[in-house]
Amino acid sequence: MKAVLYAAPAIEPVSLAEAKLQIKVDSETLAGNLTTYQSIVPGSHGISAGGLYTHVGTGVSVIGKTAIVNLNAGTVGTDGTVDAKIQESDDNVTYTDWTGGGFTQVTSANDNAIQEKAYTGSKAYIRVVAKVLVAACEFGAEIIVDASTSADDDLITAIITAARQHVENHTRRALISQMWKYYLDAFPEEDDFIKLPFGNLSATDLSITYKDSDGTSTTMTLTTDYLIETNGDQCGRIVLPYGVSWPSANLYPSNPITITFTCGYGAASTDVPSIIRTAIKMVIAELYRNRGDSVIGQTLVEDKAVGRLLASYRLWDEF
Fold first, then answer.
1. SS3 labels along 229-259
2. What are the phi and psi torsion angles at 312 (to 5°)?
3. Three-class DSSP category at 101
4. In 19-148, at which residue ranges do the beta strands (DSSP E only) sit?
5. Is the entire prediction scored with pTM above 0.85?
6. What is the per-residue pLDDT across 258-271, written as a single tens digit (0 to 9) for each?
7. Angle between helix 16-23 and 153-171 (nearest 10)
8. What CATH number is given to the structural domain containing 79?
9. Cα→Cα distances 283→9, 13, 20, 23, 168, Å
10. Which of 261, 258, 305 is nearest to 283 (CA)?
11. Sheet holding 66-76: strands in order across?
12. Helix, coil or strand: residue 194
């Protein structure tokens, strides 16, 4: 199998904060662990024009960290209301509403109180936006980030990646979405399909190109030249439509066929099954504790319960 990683996962299935919780490592002081940011500055905020969310808070970086968002309501004006919600973003520019991030509407019946929400999404930035109707209202929004640091942060970060790669190698899967290039020397002679590795094939961003003996590249066309079978969490396939054959050109002598595809459970850490994430945490703990060879004669996935946790997720397809 000639598969080359083209675009690595953007995040890991286990964050630095989760790994440190697993191995019980932090800065050991509350003040050192927590940082509070003002997203919407506390004060009296006027009626929103057109009933829109015109009070837009400042974005805060939360990638790989634990975050809590507080809506701190003061006195609400007569018949006034405050609607606030959490938004998330990959780049601190384009924001979308985070599912489950809406706060209970603030009225005079529940003002002068704090509402709290833990952010459990996977984006790099979050902020709070709000709209005020009928009368000016007093409120603010703050984001509390567990940004604890320790002398071992760089080491633990490297261990997280190593543990994820170790589990990927054992299960023969891609966990977080990643792009690969798969090289073939020839099209199948008998089969009307090409099986792709790593499971959880995405139907988007897949392309097939081939070079003839002169080095001229041709890109095949989806639905006309081939179909895509994603096959859930199993290995996906490229299938010929009815009545269509593989190209018959004389192919280039070195890696003439390139299939570019994306695979993985998803772009968020929470897309990865909890059993796999638990196994990764166990491997992280083992690597951190020993920082060398594990038990002689055993690999990490064979040690204790890790192998049993991963057994049902292993792909057995041959390539």
1. ECCCCCCCEEECCCCCCCCCCCECCCCCEEE
2. -75, -10
3. strand
4. 34-45, 55-56, 60-61, 66-76, 81-89, 95-102, 113-119, 125-133, 137-146
5. no
6. 999 999 999 888 89
7. 100
8. 2.60.120
9. 19, 13, 13, 11, 12
10. 305
11. 34-45, 137-146, 66-76, 113-119
12. strand
Q: State which residues form the domain around 118.
A: 29-146
Q: 304, exposed or middle or buried, with CB in 10 Å at 0-12, 13-18, 19+?
A: middle
> One-letter amino acid identity for 7?
A
Instruction: Give the mean pLDDT of 184-212.
Output: 96
The total domain count for the chain is 2
| Residue 298 confidence (pLDDT) | 55
The DSSP code sequence of 67-92 is EEEEEEEEEEPTT-EEEEEEEEESSS
Q: Both tokens of residue 69?
A: 């968002």
Question: Which of 91, 122, 146 represents a domain boundary (last residue)?
Answer: 146
Write the CB contacts of 168 (distance below 8 Å, at least 6 apart in sequence): 174, 175
Please tell me whether residues 141 and 94 are part of one structural domain.
yes
pLDDT digits (tens, 9 = 90+) for 181-197: 999 999 999 999 999 99
Do 125 and 215 lie in a common domain?
no
Burial class (CB in 10 A: 0-12, 13-18, 19+), 133: middle
Query: 142 near 72, Cβ under 8 Å?
Result: yes
